[in-house]
Amino acid sequence: MASIKVLIVDDSAIVRQIFTEIISREPGLEVVGTAPDPDVARDKILQLKPDVITLDIEMPRMDGLTFLKKLMHHHPLPTIIVSSLTPRGSQLALDALELGAVEVLGKPGGAFSVEDLGGQLVEKIRAAALTRPRKPSDHHPAPKPSSVAPNPPLKTTNKVIAIGASTGGTEAIKEVLLGLPPNSPGIVIVQHMPPKFTTAFAQRLNQICRLEVKEAQDGDSVLAGRVLIAPGNCHMLLRRSGSRYFAQVKNGPPVHHQRPSVDVLFNSTALSAGGNAIGVLLTGMGADGADGLLAMKERGAYTIAQDEATSVVYGMPKEAVKRGAVHKVLPLSRIPGEIQRVLASSWAT
């Protein structure tokens, strides 16, 4: 099998050196070139034809966002955004994901070691290589809240919706939430994303959704009309006390190399909510969430997986389908309607 060819674009010579060292020691990965700025990168993309690029988002001469916009319009390539772990860096990274980037990698401040970044970088490159990059104009934005169909009657408020996603998930989650009415049951979400970025992601969703969206804190109540996003580098579990659902945020070993892990959330939802839950597994590489979705289904939950055609990477949903964990496989645009249909059906009595 041919190696995955990577181009590193970063104005820092140290970062270019460290990334080259990380990638070069991995079987199946090859650094075909590096570039200190977008002008050099443009020429090397045409010359070297990389499969994946890593792109620093804050650079002189031409910033990463401007370059990414031009790249996705003229020569779309799977792109991993490398961003500082700052509020500004996090917001720029979210802008980049909206423009077509497929992954985000946090760049720690100060000196950082190969060991700190190696596993994350390699995993994201392998995931990016499996994606189908899109031009920004190819993205069909989620419907505005005003265009949502009349709300079906919800027969009980004692329900919960659990959603998991990885590569390509930020845009998929946004589309699902924009398609749901403000009286939806409480929603808990795991999106594979570094610390700080989950904070910015929740804040951005809160600005555009009719639901309240926040990054979860330990003990937060899961309420109708509220969405809790698992913080980066922490697991989130759904717990129940009497009739009250709440989020438990905790440390713990990674599951499927992920923290937060979708399986951790889904398994806890199966135990705490049983048949009162809906599980939704969206785009992403690997198998995180597949076993947990099966556990939810076996405890009576209704389960949905995103289809291959609309997934950026059809990995996690595919694994769930293979395990028999899914009631219905749907294109992304139909998932909000299916959630509302199920909540209004006899299942929700």
From TrEMBL:
<dbReference type="Pfam" id="PF00072">
    <property type="entry name" value="Response_reg"/>
</dbReference>
<feature type="active site">
    <location>
        <position position="166"/>
    </location>
</feature>
<dbReference type="InterPro" id="IPR001789">
    <property type="entry name" value="Sig_transdc_resp-reg_receiver"/>
</dbReference>
<comment type="similarity">
    <text>Belongs to the CheB family.</text>
</comment>
<keyword id="KW-0145">Chemotaxis</keyword>
<dbReference type="GO" id="GO:0006935">
    <property type="term" value="P:chemotaxis"/>
</dbReference>
<dbReference type="InterPro" id="IPR000673">
    <property type="entry name" value="Sig_transdc_resp-reg_Me-estase"/>
</dbReference>
<protein>
    <recommendedName>
        <fullName>Protein-glutamate methylesterase/protein-glutamine glutaminase</fullName>
        <ecNumber>3.1.1.61</ecNumber>
        <ecNumber>3.5.1.44</ecNumber>
    </recommendedName>
</protein>
<dbReference type="GO" id="GO:0008984">
    <property type="term" value="F:protein-glutamate methylesterase activity"/>
</dbReference>
<feature type="modified residue" description="4-aspartylphosphate">
    <location>
        <position position="56"/>
    </location>
</feature>
<feature type="domain" description="CheB-type methylesterase">
    <location>
        <begin position="154"/>
        <end position="346"/>
    </location>
</feature>
<feature type="active site">
    <location>
        <position position="288"/>
    </location>
</feature>
<keyword id="KW-0378">Hydrolase</keyword>
<dbReference type="Pfam" id="PF01339">
    <property type="entry name" value="CheB_methylest"/>
</dbReference>
<dbReference type="InterPro" id="IPR008248">
    <property type="entry name" value="CheB-like"/>
</dbReference>
<dbReference type="GO" id="GO:0050568">
    <property type="term" value="F:protein-glutamine glutaminase activity"/>
</dbReference>
<feature type="region of interest" description="Disordered">
    <location>
        <begin position="132"/>
        <end position="155"/>
    </location>
</feature>
<dbReference type="GO" id="GO:0005737">
    <property type="term" value="C:cytoplasm"/>
</dbReference>
<dbReference type="InterPro" id="IPR011006">
    <property type="entry name" value="CheY-like_superfamily"/>
</dbReference>
<feature type="domain" description="Response regulatory">
    <location>
        <begin position="5"/>
        <end position="122"/>
    </location>
</feature>
<keyword id="KW-0963">Cytoplasm</keyword>
<comment type="function">
    <text>Involved in chemotaxis. Part of a chemotaxis signal transduction system that modulates chemotaxis in response to various stimuli. Catalyzes the demethylation of specific methylglutamate residues introduced into the chemoreceptors (methyl-accepting chemotaxis proteins or MCP) by CheR. Also mediates the irreversible deamidation of specific glutamine residues to glutamic acid.</text>
</comment>
<dbReference type="GO" id="GO:0000156">
    <property type="term" value="F:phosphorelay response regulator activity"/>
</dbReference>
<feature type="active site">
    <location>
        <position position="192"/>
    </location>
</feature>
<dbReference type="InterPro" id="IPR035909">
    <property type="entry name" value="CheB_C"/>
</dbReference>
<keyword id="KW-0597">Phosphoprotein</keyword>
